[in-house]
């Protein structure tokens, strides 16, 4: 309920801001050419920051996206030869976030030993106006996947919570599983009123710190989250 309330407050705040002001305040200075002229009102054109909030990570196709060399681009796999830009122009935003984590319990805990966990978040956003469907709508779907060692080999520190947040999604007791963590529709009814219908997760992986301080454990090592 707290997460839903926060989402609604931020959503209403963003939607009540003029498009130019909303983009400038978030530092978006490029990629505005993706906005497709249409009689339908696009939420992405009005408040592109909604997508980064929903994904909790960078999103390809909104202002601020860089498509240069591998050292400069904001997404690891880039523009897919222009396909990704074309998809965004037509309202489809597809992003994948991957985090790898290694941990080692050197002494104490439930048992000693090392383990490895891979978390993958796949997020899809569909702007209904850009897609030629209806005005003011945004469909969001996120799937969480976890691979690697079993819970018996990862919950070994003896803590009451996971050593790092990556163990929470899609389920703390599953090791090779993919599940939908979020799916909802955002629909703007007016400049100041919108509704959100669907399932909203209260746990996000990509931008969260992956580790906690636990005695007698070598700190978990996580690779930088990559957006593909």
Mean pLDDT: 76
Tally of DSSP β-strands: 7
The number of domains: 1
Secondary structure category = alpha+beta
Question: What best-fitting shape do the alpha-carbon axes yield?
Answer: elongated
Distance N terminus to C terminus?
A: 31 Å
Q: What share of residues is helical? A: 10-25%
Please count the helical segments.
6
Return residue spans where pLDDT drops below 50 for at least 5 consecutive residues. 12-30, 206-226
Largest sheet: 7 strands, antiparallel
User: What radius of gyration results from the CA coordinates?
Assistant: 19 Å
Beta-strand share of residues:
25-35%
The gist of it:
With 228 residues, this protein is an alpha+beta fold.
Topology:
Layout lengths: L1 H14 L3 H7 L17 H4 L2 H7 L27 H7 L2 E14 L7 E15 L9 E12 L2 H4 L22 E12 L5 E6 L17 E6 L3 E2 L1
Structural description of this entry:
The chain has helices at residues 2-15, 19-25, 43-46, 49-55, 83-89, 151-154, and strands at residues 92-105, 113-127, 137-148, 177-188, 194-199, 217-222, 226-227. The protein has 228 residues and is α+β, with helices and mostly antiparallel strands. It starts with a helix and ends with a strand. A hairpin with a 7-residue loop joins strand 1 (92-105) and strand 2 (113-127). The protein has one domain. It contains six helices and seven strands; from the N terminus they run H-H-H-H-H-E-E-E-H-E-E-E-E. Strands 1, 2, 3, 4, 5, 6 and 7 form a seven-stranded antiparallel sheet that branches. Helices cover 19% and strands 29% of the residues.
């Amino acid at each position: 309920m707290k997460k839903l309330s926060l989402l609604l407050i931020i959503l209403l705040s963003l939607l009540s801001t003029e498009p130019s002001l909303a983009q400038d305040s978030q530092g978006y200075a490029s990629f505005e050419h993706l906005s497709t002229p249409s009689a339908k009102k696009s939420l992405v054109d009005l408040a592109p920051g909604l997508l980064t909030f929903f994904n909790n990570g960078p999103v390809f196709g909104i202002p601020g996206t860089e498509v240069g060399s591998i050292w400069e681009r904001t997404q690891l796999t880039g523009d897919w030869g222009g396909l990704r830009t074309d998809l965004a122009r037509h309202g489809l935003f597809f992003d994948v976030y991957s985090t790898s984590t290694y941990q080692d319990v050197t002494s104490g805990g439930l048992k000693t030993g090392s383990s490895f966990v891979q978390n993958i978040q796949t997020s899809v956003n569909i702007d209904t106006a850009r897609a030629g469907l209806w005005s003011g709508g945004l469909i969001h779907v996120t799937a969480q996947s976890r691979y690697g060692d079993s819970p018996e080999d990862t919950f070994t520190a003896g803590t009451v919570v996971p050593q790092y947040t990556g163990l929470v999604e899609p389920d703390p007791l599953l090791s090779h599983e993919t599940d939908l963590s979020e799916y909802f529709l955002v629909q703007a009814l007016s400049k100041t009123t919108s509704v959100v219908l669907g399932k909203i997760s209260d746990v996000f992986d990509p931008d969260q710190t992956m580790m906690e301080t636990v005695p007698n454990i070598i700190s978990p090592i996580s690779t930088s989250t990559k957006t593909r």
